[in-house]
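@channel sequence for tomorrow's demo:
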Amino acid sequence: MFIKQKKSNNLVSEQLPLQFEFQSNQNFNTFYPGSNEEVINHLRHIFTSNEQQIFLWGADGTGKTHLLQAVSQESNQQNKSSFYFSFESQQLPEPEMLNGLESFDIVCFDNIDCIAENTEWEHAFFNYFNIHRDANKKLILSAHCPPKFLPIQLPDLKTRMSWGLTLKLTALSDDQQLNALIYKANDLGFEIPVNVGRFLMTHYASDMPSIWILLDKINHATLAAKRKLTIPFLKQIMSDQKTL
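structure tokens (generated this afternoon):
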């Protein structure tokens, strides 16, 4: 669980003695769009659109967290205050954390499906939703499924989840995943040849979250060795990882 906050509000800061984490590398420029250009365009221009609410959904690893963090960073660059929070179903905070959030220009809640079937949280979020909307502020929610399939027990809250624009993040194809891998490596400052990228995805990782973890390890190894990445060097890196 982590919170990211821009232009901190004193009231909210006092009420939320939680750890802050700023993912500076998760911005729009470092996100490989694949087939999601339209989704990204809506998120980037939320402050110039008439949409007050966006519900973003997609399977694990499609980049929901990255994009919500990117929205927060973009908001700050536009001198807008933003608040980001990622829910975890096994470690929900007290609902009082919602108090005062209507003061932010935009609020991003990641994994909102985690509050489903928690009566206290559903009622608290319903009340917050109404206050936030009355304040005419922006709200972005993310989940693994569209609003109508959320196991929300409070009917009025479930209805409100569907207000505004619902956007689906499409998973990358195999070729797009390879392109995303090369794109991300270039952003980190090193090159992954196409054949090496295919070898990595075939033998060591087949989903994007695992690929990103391996990419960080590979980046550190290439920097330390000051070597270009080849298949033999990749095998050596992965072998060294297993012995740690």
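heads up for whoever presents: The chain has two domains: 3-168, 174-243.
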